[in-house]
Amino acid sequence: MPMSAYEVVRRAIEFTGPDRLPVRFTALGLSDVHSVGWNQIGTGDHALAETLDEWGCTWRRSEVKNMGQVKGHPLADWDALARFRWPDPDDPAFYVGMEERFAGSEGKYINTGIFMLLFERMHALRGFENTLTDLCWEPGRLASLADRIVDFDLGIIANISRRFGRRIHGFSFTDDWGAERAAFVSRSMWDRFFKPRYRRIFDAIHAAGWHVWMHTCGKVDALLDSLIEIGVDVLNLQQPTVFGDLAAFGRQFAGCVCFESLCDIQQTLPFRDADAIRAEAELLLSHWATPYGGFILSDYGDGQAIGVPIEKKQIMLDAFLAADPWANASRGTAT
Fold first, then answer.
1. With contact defined as beta carbons under 8 Å apart, do 121 and 42 qualify?
2. What does the pLDDT look like over 66-117, one tens digit per residue?
3. How do beta strands 58-60 and 23-25 pair?
4. Which residues pair with 259 in a beta bridge?
5. Contact 9, 22 (CB under 8 A)
6. DSSP conformation letters of 254-317
7. Residues 202 and 230 sit within 8 Å (Cβ to Cβ)
8. What angle do CA 288, 289, 290 make, to 5 degrees?
9. Phi, psi at residue 312, to the nearest 5°?
10. How far apart, in whole angstroms, are the C-alpha atoms of residue 122 and residue 227?
11. Where are the alpha helices (DSSP H) in the chain?
12. Which tops the pLDDT comparison, 309 or 80?
């Protein structure tokens, strides 16, 4: 009997042998994962040129369809801290309607989460350049800001856990940590300032009985050992070619964490042909997955913004399904 969608995802994350490749591909109507969100404003209404999120950060959008960018940083001046209104994770309005969002989740793996967990929220509030400068020149002030954000995150986790407990299986979040060549900060600075704060959040997620799902862009391989050490379960990496040799990357990290990935969204999917897409899909499954699990195919949702037509997404999906090591093993066929 085939495994349920929930079981396929769980086994891939825990390396206990799924019977097929788990998929999150809503653009083509396929997903083993069902998301149940709280009422986070996030980037707001994309039909509007400008919106405010729950932290008072101003999001602006151009004529190019995407989520926009933070252009108004309410704590760009530290003097604004005295009058800043912190969002309250205990506000019941954040959780109204969540129960109804479980509809259609039967048999699936259920996720919730926070958009912009820590670092992204810090520089949304303070400004990117200010945040990096503060790490060197105002570490005490920046630590106080980081701790207030962590307290908010822990409050959201506690409230969702209290309401829904183990009906939820995973907690996902975004924190981009790298540019094209390296992480934004050194490993030593990351370990000193950020690692203990992420550990607090990861421990709370695990205490709720959930897996930790982290999205991060850029060349972040220097940070992965630390993230794995403190308990990240799933890493969403959407630029695999930024790491260079996919096989070498797999030798270092496959089996240590479950990858949620796809063909590179900035290089392969927009600019390469079908043969290159198929070749990269096969490489990823060959070197980033293990016989026991460790890979989830996850579509990048904003295909229009990165110039990827639906036809290329179909080619990629078909390529991954054809190379599925677990389904092929159960059929007794070679990949």
1. no
2. 899 999 999 999 999 999 999 999 999 999 999 999 999 999 999 999 999 9
3. unpaired
4. 235, 295
5. yes
6. BTTBEEEE-S-TTTHHHHS-HHHHHHHHHHHHHHH-BTTB-EEEE--S-TTTTT--HHHHHHHH
7. yes
8. 125
9. -70, -35
10. 19
11. 5-14, 119-126, 128-137, 139-164, 187-189, 195-207, 221-229, 246-253, 268-271, 274-288, 310-322, 325-331
12. 80
Backbone angle region of 64, left / alpha / beta, with phi > 0 → left and psi within -120 to 50 → alpha: beta
> What's the sign of the alpha-carbon dihedral 298, 301, 306, 311?
positive
- CA–CA separation, 193 vs 75, rounded Å? 20
DSSP state of 192: I
- Supply the DSSP symbol for 83: G
The predicted-structure confidence for 189-204, as pLDDT tens digits, reads as follows 999 999 999 999 999 9
Strand partners, 293: 290
| Residue 244 near residue 203, CB atoms below 8 Å | no
Contact predicate 178/266, CB 8 Å: no
Going from the C-alpha of 311 to that of each of 20, 88, 308, the distances in angstroms are: 23, 43, 8
Q: What's the mean pLDDT in 297-323?
A: 86
Six-digit token string for 217? 């862009």
User: What's domain 5-42+77-331's architecture?
Assistant: Alpha-Beta Barrel (3.20)
pLDDT of residue 334: 47
Residue 180, SS3 per DSSP:
coil
Sign for the CA dihedral angle at 185, 190, 238, 201 comes to negative
Are 238 and 273 spatial neighbours (Cβ–Cβ below 8 Å)?
no
Phi-psi map region of 287: left, alpha, beta (phi>0 left; psi -120 to 50 alpha)? alpha
Q: State both tokens at 102.
A: 């479980």
CA nearest neighbour of 93 among 159, 175, 188: 159
Average pLDDT over the chain reads 95
